[in-house]
Amino acid sequence: xxxxxxxxxxxxxxxxxxxxxxxxxxxxxxxxxxxxxxxxxxxxxxxxxxxxxxxxxxxxxxxxxxxxxxxxxxxxxxxxxxxxxxxxxxxxxxxxxxxxxxxxxxxxxxxxxxxxxxxxxxxxxxxxxxxxxxxxxxxxxxxxxxxxxxxxxxxxxxxxxxxxxxxxxxxxxxxxxxxxxxxxxxxxxxxxxxxxxxxxxx
Length: 202
Fold this sequence. Notes:
Elements: H1 8-37, H2 42-91, H3 94-112, H4 122-140, E1 144-147, E2 159-167, E3 175-180, E4 182-185, E5 188-191, E6 193-200
Parallel strand pairs: 2-6
Antiparallel strand pairs: 1-4, 3-6, 4-5
């Protein structure tokens, strides 16, 4: 049986398919050549990896620094809070103590200006004196201390000079008399002592 002769239309279609296949093969070859041209050399690849490693190290360092700063901030906040609590404990009684001082002053004045020779008043004065001592002992338990600088050198941090008296008997700036006692609370001044201070006689 003889081979069947193709029509002109079939030949044209066959040629078009061959051309299309050839074009696809050429495109694939070109793509492969282009990809091969983009391949990185080992040295360049090592350099890229080293750069990425350095970036990672820098990121870790930055994060570590942030963590250290955050920890320091937390530590500072904790320390300030502890100091605030300590101050609150130490000086919470400041207002209350200041309210008590005039009471103690009045009791001491009652003893000072009373007629100590009057036998009738002696039991009363003894009771007032015991009350004053009890007051002072009670407030001392909470850090309140008396400032009574009789005979001491004048200290402007704790004393308030009400008058100055010339004297040859003591050195200048000596407290000659205490008009009103002062008080401190845990070392902090509640009220200065009102005093008379000496100066050199002319």
